[in-house]
TrEMBL record:
InterPro entries cross-referenced by the UniProt entry: TANGO2 (IPR008551)
Lineage top rank: taxon: Bacteria
Protein name: NRDE family protein
């Protein structure tokens, strides 16, 4: 997944709002979002190669999401980073404790950022940074560098989320338009990550569209003040055309 924007305790009706695009090679086998047969409390898509996921939530309101860190040379990972998301969703650890344990052996993975939250706290950890961060209420953005690195797509998506949250008629579905934005950023605003500038620009769009790689799915997750969870996933082909949509709603198990 290459873009996550979220509002943590920023809206009176929605303590959590997450909007995310997963960018991946189109040939990588993936299962659509569903409750997992081997972990019935977990709702998420699934990477059928590595066995983990990029974003998911549980019936108890635990949730996690992950992005890779873009690095000029990335070695082969012994294990899929998506297992770090499913590991939190399957566990009973609070976010801080899970990420603190992970910080002791996270060097075994190639670069990643992990967000983990529950009804009490939200925390983040990257194995390319120092320490676990417990996040105060706020609006956050994450792409393929550290949390809130001001890449154009991150800043644009965060700004639009802020504007929507300020509206009296805000509902999370308004964020679909943000996730669907295919406008390419100005080359002069792009970061230097060691890749070709034309590719950097293509990857700098909120919705990425390349022949063999791009936005495979968009996801909205929200939890209301009353404990009602909505999780929606839209899936796209290599031409950027929507191929399906799944919607789930349930009340948290306290």
């Amino acid at each position: 997944m290459c873009l996550i924007v979220l509002a943590h305790r920023m809206h009176p009706d929605y303590p959590l709002v997450v909007a995310a695009n997963r960018d991946e090679y189109f040939h990588r086998p993936t299962a659509v979002a569903a409750f997992w047969s081997d972990a019935p409390q977990v709702l998420a898509g699934r990477d059928l190669r590595g066995g983990g996921t990029w974003l998911g939530v549980t019936r108890q309101g635990r949730w996690a999401a992950l992005t890779n860190v873009r690095e000029p040379v990335e070695g082969a990972a012994a294990r899929s980073r998506g297992l770090l998301v499913s590991g939190f969703l399957r566990s009973q650890d609070d976010p801080q404790h899970y990420l603190a344990r992970l910080a002791r052996w996270g060097y075994r993975f190639t670069g990643f950022n992990l967000l983990a939250g529950d009804s009490r706290a939200l925390a983040s950890y990257s194995n390319r940074d120092v320490g676990v961060r417990v996040l105060p209420p706020g609006c956050y953005g994450l792409s393929n560098h550290l949390l809130d690195t001001p890449w154009p797509k991150v800043e644009q998506a965060k700004g639009r989320m802020h504007a929507l949250l300020a509206r009296r008629d805000f509902v999370p579905d308004q964020l679909w338009d943000v996730l669907a934005d295919r406008q390419l950023p100005d080359v002069a605003t792009l970061p230097e990550t060691g890749i070709d500038r034309d590719l950097e620009q293509a990857l700098g769009a909120i919705f990425v569209q390349l022949p063999d790689y791009g936005t495979r799915c968009s996801t909205l997750l929200s939890i209301s003040r009353e404990g009602h969870v909505r999780f929606s996933e839209r899936r796209f082909d290599s031409h950027g055309k929507m191929q399906g949509e799944s919607r789930f709603s349930f009340t948290l198990v306290r």
